[in-house]
Design brief:
The structure is a homodimer.
Chain A: E1 8-14, E2 27-33, E3 42-50, H1 54-58, E4 79-86, E5 96-99, E6 106-109, E7 115-116, H2 133-146, E8 153-156, H3 162-173, E9 177-182, H4 185-193, E10 199-202, H5 208-215, E11 220-224, H6 229-235, E12 239-247, H7 251-254, H8 266-275, E13 279-282, H9 285-289, H10 293-305, E14 313-317, H11 322-330, E15 337-341
Parallel strand pairs in A: 8-9, 8-11, 9-10, 11-12, 12-13, 14-15
Antiparallel strand pairs in A: 1-2, 3-4, 3-6, 3-15, 4-5, 5-7
Helix pairs in contact in A: 2-3, 2-10, 5-6
Amino acid sequence: MTTTSSRINRRFILAKRPQGMPTASDIVLENVPQDDPAPGQVLLRTLYLSLDPYMRGRMDDTPSYAPPLNIGDVIVGGTVSRVEQSRHPDYSPGELVLAYSGWQDYALSDGRDLHKLDPTMKHLPHALGLLGMPGFTGYMGLTDIGAPRAGETVVVAAASGAVGSVVGQVAKLRGARVVGIAGGEQKCRYVTDVLGFDACLDHRGNDLPGALNSACPDGIDVYFENVGGAVFDAVFPLLNTRARIPVCGMISQYNGPTGSVQHDRLPLLMGTILKKRMRVQGFIISQDYGEQYPAFYRQMSAWLDAGKIQFREDIVDGLENSVTAFQHLLSGKNFGKMIVRVAS
Amino acid sequence: MTTTSSRINRRFILAKRPQGMPTASDIVLENVPQDDPAPGQVLLRTLYLSLDPYMRGRMDDTPSYAPPLNIGDVIVGGTVSRVEQSRHPDYSPGELVLAYSGWQDYALSDGRDLHKLDPTMKHLPHALGLLGMPGFTGYMGLTDIGAPRAGETVVVAAASGAVGSVVGQVAKLRGARVVGIAGGEQKCRYVTDVLGFDACLDHRGNDLPGALNSACPDGIDVYFENVGGAVFDAVFPLLNTRARIPVCGMISQYNGPTGSVQHDRLPLLMGTILKKRMRVQGFIISQDYGEQYPAFYRQMSAWLDAGKIQFREDIVDGLENSVTAFQHLLSGKNFGKMIVRVAS
């Protein structure tokens, strides 16, 4: 196929590095002509774009687990995409794939970063949520590093979010007692009433350390760390001997330090890890657990079909609304996995 | 046996809690009459007493992995002891046992804390060193948590000491590149020339961070943490992605904080654990790995017999010299596993 199209690609590029919360002058929408695929390539149409906290880290010019974006780069992101044109032997027009096209309408791919989607998947956005990276992250971090036993106490921050909601529900399925932390009364009600956590605390309340202490009379055995900051500070004194802390994110620190502590607590943390024989371990789902995805997919699909797992999505219509949606995600205004519907 | 003896027991008790380095006014020698064993008990004669850094922690009135000593208690410690009298069916006079008699000539035991020593052991102090708690600690922490692969870089502080020397030699046997850190030129020469580490740095030198950077051109994959403080600070920026840090002690902090850092590095540490996907894990050998002792004993005995492991002891004669020997241990003046020969 060598048709010449006159497609226009809308794409968001990094115009300058954000200070704190990214704005529409940091992330700018461009319209550019879209090239047709070269031999060995496919042209992809973005249907759904996943918005995730890690994207904020990629906008800074500091070393992280992935190289920073350069000025002018398209903002990265996982997508559910449809093959529009194919000059690649393994792909045909109309096929649905999990891709990494980023914040744009179209992208070219040589196929190496694509995964064909299960054609029986009933709800495509699940590929970016419960059955995708966030669900996989929550499941593996909890089961492999956290490894809760029946009767143990698991604490999950951002409990109504894409990762936290999976962590807590899987911990309940393992027989643990689960305490969530979320922002606001509405989210907390959802966490206890719909997700089935034993308790949920509003981190906007007056005395989080005191409330957490009351909610965890037997201490904390597993803390799934995905927010950092004041929540970690409240959790820290309650950690039990042999506590496990899977570390998969620190959203509260992505927009810069907010700490008010003036002395160095690094020796305290290391001393506590020693005295309480704790395990603190960071992980990045794709690099550390990629080969376990099929097993996860089978297990989570079975739970989903059996009605044992709930998962809420916050779907925003229109690529042009991505910056606002991303701001909502970083400030906790979303309610459920944040996804942009780009086309259908 | 109901002989009445007029034995005198010399014992060291905690007279008051030390501020910083313990002195002879904190740890005081008493002479008291020694009771004979009651039914079900054995009377033990201490032959060798192990001196270890953890004892300092037990002298403080702060929660740790073991309850603190009370004022008036005999200082705890592992011993090689001989059964002098027995009213216990499982023990006979003359048998040698690993005991926990503490800093004294005699002790009574109901047998529950005793382990009969391998009668083929050629060198009794090994039961307190290479084949005892320190060797077991180094071996398990390195192999289970550190898990070095061939070609990786392992850094060990207190490299000439009882634990560190085992960590480094086992890492070499696993094919790793091993860099030790020790106090003074003599110890460093021993670490490279006798123990066979690839390099050893003197932490008393001017620029430990710079020297460590030069000695670890490929970064650090495993840091066996048993000192803390300035050594950790030098190691921290060099840690590689997926680095592992077994945490088994922080001797530099046992006598109180010495840090000069004025800002809070806890968020930095947690952020680094996330970004570099590190594993930081504390352990206490007896509680976490007790059931693996027989396998360790077989492996280490085989290496010892084959001449593949060197182990240096610093044996002080006379129970009365225990306080001075303990001070030497805490300030790094010992050279090898510190043991007091109490009787023969």
